[in-house]
Give the backbone structure.
Amino acid sequence: MSAVPTLKTTPAPTAPPESTTQHGNKAHTDGRFGYVPVQTRSDRFKSVNVADFDAVTGREAVWKLSPVAKFTDLTAGELDGSVYPISSDPVDGVTVDWVDRSDARIGTAGTPEERAAANAWSTFEKALAITVSGEEAKEITVTRADLGASPRAAHVIIEAKPFSQATVILQNTGDARLSENVEIILGESSNLTVVSVQEWNTGAVHLTNHFASVGKDARLKHVVVSLGGSIVRVNPSVRLAGSGSDTLLLGLYFADAGQHLEQQVYVFHDAPHSRSRVTYKGALQGQDARTVWIGDVLIGNKAAGTDSYEQNRNLVLSEGTRADSIPNLEIETGDIVGAGHASATGRFDDEQLFYLQSRGITEEEARRLVVRGFLTEVIQQIGSPTLEARLQETIEAELLSSASLPAAVEAR
Amino acid sequence: MSVLEIKDLHVSVQTDQGVKQILNGVNLTINEGEIHAIMGPNGSGKSTLAYTIAGHPKYHVEGGSILLDGAEVLTMTVDQRARAGLFLAMQYPVEIPGVTVTNFLRTAKTAIDGEAPAIRTWIKDVRGAMTNLRMDKSFAERNVNEGFSGGEKKRNEILQLELLKPKFAVLDETDSGLDVDALKIVSEGVNRAKENTGLGLLLITHYTRILRYIHPDFVHVFVNGRIAEQGGPELADRLEDEGYDRFLVPEIVN
Ligand SMILES: Nc1ncnc2c1ncn2[C@@H]1O[C@H](COP(=O)(O)OP(=O)(O)OP(=O)(O)O)[C@@H](O)[C@H]1O
Ligand SMILES: [Mg+2]
C-alpha cells in the first residue's frame, strides 16, 4: 500500500490548506514542505487524435499504476467504433439516440490525455447521446450488455439542459474490451446525477474517461461503482466551469482476487464559488486484488472562494492485496474557503473478526457487518433507492462468493 | 443452575522460538452467581486462560476440557461459545472500522438471542445502559472502540456485558487504566449485570482495589499457568501486603 501525497501551491495561499486524517492503520496528513512539485494538472498534453500520442510505455503519469501490457489492443490496436446494442425504458424528458461525430456537443466537455482515450475518440462512428430536459426529477437506466469480447471504441454524451433534473444510470454488464469517452455537459442550474455501474464479466477490460463540464449554479453528482471486470479504469474529470457550480463525486469499488480497479479523479475549480466533495471507498479481498485511486484537485486562479475536500478510504479484508491512494492538491489562488484531503487504508484482521465472533456474530455476518458499515456511507448518497438496495445485495453476495476467504476461526 | 468447569487445562502458543507451554493444568469450577477473582503476576497466563475460554485461535489446547453445563466448550466455534452464554471482556478491546456501536450491539444481540430484539425496548435498554455507564450518547454512532480512550473501551465492554446477558463472563483486567470514578462506574455495571441475570464471574486483576467494589466469593492465585492457591476474600488482602514472592520461590529453585 502506498499513499504518496503531493501538494503544490502557486502562489502560496494566504490560508494554508487544511488537511485531515482519520482512522485507519495507514493514514497520512500532509504538511506544506518536502513535496516534489508535479506538473500542473491542467498543463497535461491533450489531443483527440491517437497519432499525437507516443506508444504507451507504462511510465507515463496516467499509466504508471495500470497493467498496460494487458490492454495494448486498446492503446495501440484497431478498435471497432460501430454502434452497439443498448436498452432502456422510455422516460419523459430524456431522449436516448445515436448522433453523428459532427454533433456540436462533442468535444465540449473535455479532451483525451492519454492514448487509449484518443484511440477511442479517433475511431467511434456514432456517439450515444442521452439528453435530459424538464425540471421534474426522473431516472433512466441505460444498459449495455452486449459489447462483445473484441476491442471497441465508444463515445457517450450526457447532456442536462439548463434547469433540468435527472438521474442517469449507465449499467454495464457482459463481456467487454472497451475504451471510451463520456462527455457530461451540465447547463446552467441543472441538477444531474450520473451513475456508472461496472458489473462486467470476469475477463472484461474497460477504460473510460468521464469528462464533465458543470455550468453556472449547476450541480453534478457523479458516482462510479466498479465491481465486476478484470481491469476497470474509470477516470472522472470534472471542470467546475460556471460560478456557483457544485459537484459531489462518489466512488465505490470492491476488488476480488486478481482484479484491477482504478480511478483517477480530477476536479478543476475553474470558476469562483465552486464547491467539490470527493468520497471514494473501496474494499479489497483476495490474492492480487488491486485498487488505485488518484485524486487531483486543482483550484485555478479564477476560482476565488472555493471549497473542496477529497477523501479516499480503503478496507483491506485479506492478505495479498494492494491499494494505492494518492491525493494531490494544487492551489493557484490565495482566496479559498477550504481545501483538504484525507486518505487511509484500514485492515480488517483476525483480531477484529475474533472480537465480533466473541459477541456471538458468525464469521460471515462479521465480514458483512464490516463491509456494509464501511461502504454504506457512499451507497446512501447515490439517491436511487432501487439501485442502492441492489448494490447492497450485490456487494454482500460478492463477499460470500469470494473463494479466498481465510479459513474460519475455529477453536482446535 | 449453570456451571462452568475447567478441568486440567493445558494450553500452548506457537512462537517464533517454537511451541511455548503456558497453561499447565488449570482446574476451576464456577457456579452461577459466584464471583471468582484470579490474581497473579505478569505473564502467568491469566489472559491465556481468558482467551482460551473464548476460543481465540492463537491458543492451542493440548489437553483438558471446559464444560458449560456439561457441554464441551472446546469444540465450539468462537461465536457458538458466545451464543452458549460465555462472554469475555477483553484486556485490550479491538477497534472495528466501519461498524457503529449501535449497529454492532444490535447485530450481537440478534445473534445471541436468535432473533432481533423488539426495537422500542431495545433502544431504551441501550440508552439506559449507556446512561448508567456515563457514556455519552454520541458513542452510539461512533465506530466500535475507534478512537476510544482506554477507559471508554472498558466501559464499552461492560455495556455489552449488561446488554448481552451472558451466563458467565470473564473480565480480563477490566480495572486497569481506570481512574477511581470510572472504576466505580464500571464496577456498578458489573454488579448490576450480576443482580439482573445472576451471572457467574471470573475477574482477572492485579489489584485489590476493584475488589472493594466487586466482592469475590473466591480468590485464586495464578502462577506459572496454574492455580497455586485458593481462598476467600482475605487471600486478596494478603496478596496485596505480601505480593507473589511466596509463590514464585519454588519456581526459582527449580
Ligand atoms: N502469541 C504469543 N506469542 C508468544 N508468547 C505469548 C503469546 N501469547 C502469550 N504469550 C506468553 O505467554 C505468557 C502468558 O501470557 P498472558 O498474556 O496469558 O499473561 P497474563 O497473566 O495475562 O499477563 P498480564 O498480567 O501481563 O496481562 C507470557 O509469557 C506471554 O509472553
Ligand atoms: Mg493479561
Q: What stands out?
A: Helices of chain B lie at 46-54, 78-84, 101-113, 119-132, 150-164, 180-197, 233-242, 245-253. Chain B has eight helices and ten strands.
